[in-house]
Amino acid sequence: MKPDQGLFQLDFDDHHAVLGIAVTADAKIVRKRYLTIARKLHPDSLSGVSAAEAQKASEVLSKLVNPAYEALSQEKSSTEHMLVLKLKGQSLRRTGTAPAVTSAVAQDLLKAPSIDAAYRKAVNGLAERQFEQLEAVSEVIGELSELNLVYLYRSNSSDSASNSSTRRSSAQPGAATSPATATPTPRKNQAAILESYINRAQDYEQNKDYSRAILELRDAVKTYPNNGICHSYLSALYFKAGQGTMARIHAKRAIEIDPGDERALAVKARVEKASSASSAAKSSSAKAADSKSSQASKSQASDKGGGFFGLFGGKKK
């Protein structure tokens, strides 16, 4: 069996789907599931398999499972991830249409009468076979991710109805309100999440680790594709990393969102200047090569008998 080279090129940012757990799972469930997967993919549990299969198992563990567990086991990153999930659910509800899903389990969940019970059952069913065939891991993760999407869509609807009922109840005469227990608005949550992405990117940038800084901002623009600050900062990071094409793309998008974005305008100008200089250098190099080739041709013709007269065997004696 050949390792699935495309598996690790996909962007698995749904950590719950990678681990095969519900988005409602607590820290104990996360750790228990991780240990189960780690034992299953450990070399001692894979005796008798081919070298290719053992290598594939090692890559699945190190490149998918371990990063997902790390993200969900750390309080800060786990909290941020849950906020992102909630915002996705709210965004789905605002569209007024159900998410487009292709797997049968997700389509069934859209119509299930009891969302929580049906969701847990579906997740557990997929989790049981998630790592049985390593070449199908990406497919199962995709199905789990769709289940999570549907659950967020439907459970957010229930939450919205519950919150609406609570607000109506609180509006009754004599009802007390408590600012300390007020639910943060999505806008405030969004600002906090964006700030965390940018702060981490800045930390990586200070250490000249541009690749990881870029990854942070790429995650940010996936969640907030119309945020000009993220596109602008990402364009600057790409330029520092020597990726002019990507720098130009994100600078252009930032300027579309905010025509006065000074950083994006500066990056765009520098990319264009670098591109012009590169084109000029290539043109000069091409001219030099042509000149050298022409001189070489003349030299060869001279060596063959003195130019025109040499074509007829040289001068008459």
From TrEMBL:
<dbReference type="InterPro" id="IPR036869">
    <property type="entry name" value="J_dom_sf"/>
</dbReference>
<feature type="region of interest" description="Disordered">
    <location>
        <begin position="157"/>
        <end position="188"/>
    </location>
</feature>
<protein>
    <submittedName>
        <fullName>Molecular chaperone DnaJ</fullName>
    </submittedName>
</protein>
<dbReference type="Pfam" id="PF00226">
    <property type="entry name" value="DnaJ"/>
</dbReference>
<dbReference type="Pfam" id="PF14559">
    <property type="entry name" value="TPR_19"/>
</dbReference>
<feature type="domain" description="J">
    <location>
        <begin position="14"/>
        <end position="77"/>
    </location>
</feature>
<feature type="region of interest" description="Disordered">
    <location>
        <begin position="273"/>
        <end position="317"/>
    </location>
</feature>
<dbReference type="InterPro" id="IPR001623">
    <property type="entry name" value="DnaJ_domain"/>
</dbReference>
<feature type="compositionally biased region" description="Low complexity">
    <location>
        <begin position="157"/>
        <end position="186"/>
    </location>
</feature>
<dbReference type="InterPro" id="IPR019734">
    <property type="entry name" value="TPR_rpt"/>
</dbReference>
<feature type="compositionally biased region" description="Low complexity">
    <location>
        <begin position="274"/>
        <end position="303"/>
    </location>
</feature>
<feature type="repeat" description="TPR">
    <location>
        <begin position="194"/>
        <end position="227"/>
    </location>
</feature>
<dbReference type="InterPro" id="IPR011990">
    <property type="entry name" value="TPR-like_helical_dom_sf"/>
</dbReference>
<feature type="compositionally biased region" description="Gly residues">
    <location>
        <begin position="304"/>
        <end position="317"/>
    </location>
</feature>
<keyword id="KW-0802">TPR repeat</keyword>
